[in-house]
Amino acid sequence: MKIKTILTAVATATAALTIAGAASAGILDDVKKKGFLQCGVNTGLTGFSAPNDKGKWEGFDVDFCRSMSAAIFGSPDKVKYTPLTSKERFTALQSGEIDVLARNTTWTFTRDVNLGLEFIGSNYTDGQGFMVRKDLGVKSAKELDGASVCIQTGTTTELNLADFFRSNSMKFTSVVFEKADEIRAAYDAGRCDVYTTDRSGLAAQRSLLKKPDDHLVLPEVVSKEPLGPVVRHGQSEWGDVARWTLFALIVSEELGVTSANADQMKSSKNPEVLRLLGVEGKMGEQLGVRQDWAYQIVKTVGNYGEIYERHVGVNTPLKLERGLNQQWSKGGLLYAPPFR
Amino acid sequence: MAASSETQGSTPRVSLWNDPQKRSLIYQAIVVVMIVGFFGFVINNTADNLEKRGIASGFGFLYSPAGFDVGMSPFLTYEPSKATHGTVLIVGVLNTLLVAITGIVIATIIGFIVGVLRLSPNWLVSRMAYCYVETLRNIPLLLQLLFWYFAVLGTLPSKRDSISMFDTFFLNIEGLFGPLPVPQDGFWMILLAIAIAITAIVMIKKWAQKRQDETGQPFPVFLVSVGLLIVLPLIAAVIAGFPLEFEHPQKNRFGLRGGMIILPEFAALILGLSLYTASFIAEIVRSGIQAISHGQTEAAYALGVRPTVTMRLVVIPQALRVIVPPLTSQYLNLTKNSSLAVAIGGAEIVAIFAGTSLNQAGQAIEIIAITMGFYLTVSLLISMFMNWYNRRIALVER
Fold first, then answer.
1. Do A162 and A137 sit in the same domain of this protein?
2. What CATH code is assigned to B85-125+264-393?
């Protein structure tokens, strides 16, 4: 009887502790309190996130982290980066090791619904492609029957690859690595015939090969890859901050606000610009961040177009056209809800 | 208080707390409750938080389609379209076991040879063995694996100009290609012949032992065994009309396909693991042999026993008693170290199941638990076997 009583007491105490442990404050408050944003990025993908020669993280995805930091703290530099492989990324986010994941991650049903994640949108619309050596004489992905393919583990790429070859009744052998630079080394050494990943990734990797001009990205795009930042499921307040940071980047380009003219635009006649820059309305306060959050983002980091051109655009080694990542008004897919 | 109970003498009325036996029982009960409570709390809390964050749990994912390819599956035909995460687990387990068993066999052979060579009276030979041991056991295994994979096997010739041996074996950057034996009708006759040969060998061995005990006449069991193992299956093969065909690798647009292939990832893993572990085994063997008093050898020589026989029948059996327990640890290490294959694209359980499956299914706790359970089981089985062997060779005192 006594033991039973003790056990009941322990069980009750356990239950009480559990509830106390699970109920934590929102991530936004936590981030403000600790004074920096913990951001999960790629271990090294030129143009998207890679340390530069001074050891500072740079790239398209890194600039999303910097934008969020600017919105919350008024300075883009209050970010700590956690480099993650594609295999580690979701566990790091689920466990709370990072606050936000900006690591060219494809938005899929399973990830959104089953993994306890929440995709806040797409900041880069991509598709999977194939890169081969020119001297193979291959002109189309349909000619790849029997090829050996280098892929990265833990990606949608792995699944699309199997699907593509199956639907075209072709066979392949795969060589699987965990890190992008391992794949590049193996592909460059000739261990595999084909390197497949998102086309933006192929462009980035191709620019780093020994002889980039000897390689060709095949015309086929075999999948939809909406890449976007991710937060933990069930944190709507924090999700809103991340989502509207992305929309602010898109809308500021649409409205013509740039890092150069952000100050002049504060006296614009367009009410949406005024609301965006925090001159009118209380959007920042409602979001739980600085009143001039969007102004800080554009002023210190830039708008979507500026970020794109700086890291991956036609004047960079990646030479990526805007393509689908153009404003909706110019035939692209970038479309943000109105700021009102 | 304890003192007062002693002075009182017979059958003192001691409170529960002052009775050392009951007190220790209470302590133990409290500890048990705390441990149970702690684990209960951890499990409950995890389940609760998983549910709150909308992360799926349970083992249902083992039956859901995997949809990705694994690099190597020598025992099962793995088709990405049909495979489930359960299939991936099985492939991973089999690949890890293959690596572990191959590695252990090769490491033991190299380790014994190098260990004996270190004791060679020849200066050059013993120095070379010494250099091998000191170099390989003092460089981290991961670096050695990367060295073998990227620096050695990465420089193999391209697919266009692969090295050809007798037009049967081809070596290029995609691996070592050779003919795959495909059994035809009547292959069972060869298997039967091998079985008969093995039975015969066991019987001959017993007979030879008995004869030697009685008459002192030795019988060349080893040579006869080898002869039987070659001749009997050969006769069977001739009778059945060579029921074995070879599937040769075929050239296609991209390179060689089909036949039997040893992938460079697998080769680098085996090379790295066995050479590294062999350096430790060599030291274990050397210390085991040196632990046997030189008087034993001298006594054998005095009786006119030849050096090789002395080694085989006098020194090694005694040395094994010293060698086997640390050898077990090396086997366990090798098995667990096989998980480093992740770094060089090997397809064993950590890479494909605790890696890719974990990422696609997202169920870290279940998958890591299964993987840990697997390693624990394998390690315990290895130690069980080695402990049994150790008891068998232990000194029987008469």
1. yes
2. 1.10.3720.10
Angle at which helices A180-188 and A199-206 pack, to 10 degrees? 60
A151 and A106 together in one domain: no
Last residue of a domain, one of A223, A240, A260: A223
Residues A235, A302: one domain?
yes
pTM score, whole prediction: 0.77
Asked if residues A66 and A74 have their Cβ atoms less than 8 Å apart, the reply is no
**Closest of A43, A161, A111 to residue B360, by C-alpha:** A111
Coil/strand/helix, residue B80: coil
Cβ contacts (< 8 Å) between B44 and chain A: which residues?
Answer: 14-15, 18
Instruction: Report which residue type is found at A266.
Output: K
Q: Of B45, B71, B252, which has the smallest distance from its Cβ to A174's Cβ?
A: B71
Domain spans, chain B: 14-52, 85-125+264-393
State whether B37 and A10 contact (CB < 8 Å).
yes
Is A15 within a domain? no
Query: How many whole angstroms separate alpha carbon B5 and alpha carbon B10?
Result: 9
Amino acid at B360: Q
Residues from chain A contacting residue B65 (CB–CB below 8 Å): none
Lookup: tokens for A258: 């740039």
Q: Are residues A33 and A115 in the same domain?
A: yes
Q: How many CA atoms lie within 13 A of B67 on its CB side?
A: 17
- CA neighbours within 13 Å on the CB side: how many for A137? 2
Q: What is the CA radius of gyration of chain B?
A: 29
User: In the 8-state DSSP scheme, what is residue A215?
Assistant: E
Q: What's the CATH code of the domain at A140?
A: 3.40.190.10
In a domain, A14, yes or no: no
Q: A88 lies in which domain range? A: 27-125+226-330
Q: What is the pLDDT of residues B104-150, one digit of tens each?
A: 999 999 999 999 899 888 999 999 999 999 999 999 999 999 999 98
How many angstroms separate the CA atoms of A98 and A75, rounded? 19
The alpha carbons of chain A give a radius of gyration, in whole angstroms, of 23
Kindly provide the ipTM of the predicted complex, given to two decimals.
0.72
The SS3 of residue B337 is helix
Question: Which of B22, B33, B36, B53 best tests the A interface by mutation, with the highest count of A CBs <10 A?
Answer: B53
Q: Give the tens place of pLDDT for each residue, B47-99.
A: 888 777 777 777 888 888 888 888 788 888 888 778 889 999 999 999 999 99
Interface mutation target, options A118, A152, A158, A210, chain B, most CBs of B under 10 Å: A158
- Residue finishing a domain among A204, A223, A242: A223
Backbone angles phi, psi at B146, to 5 degrees: -60, -40
Q: Which residues of B97-131 are buried (b: 16+ CB within 10 A; e: fewer)?
A: bbbbebbbebbbebbbebbbbbeeeeeeeeeebee
Extract the tokens encoding A175.
């060589």
Alpha helices by DSSP H, listed for chain A, are: 2-22, 27-34, 60-73, 89-94, 109-114, 156-167, 180-188, 199-206, 236-254, 262-265, 271-276, 283-287, 293-300, 304-311
**Which tokens sit at B149?**
């994979």
* Minimum mean pLDDT range among A269-278, B28-37, B180-189, B303-312: B180-189
pLDDT value of position B133: 94
| Claim to verify: residue A137 and residue A213 sit in the same structural domain | yes
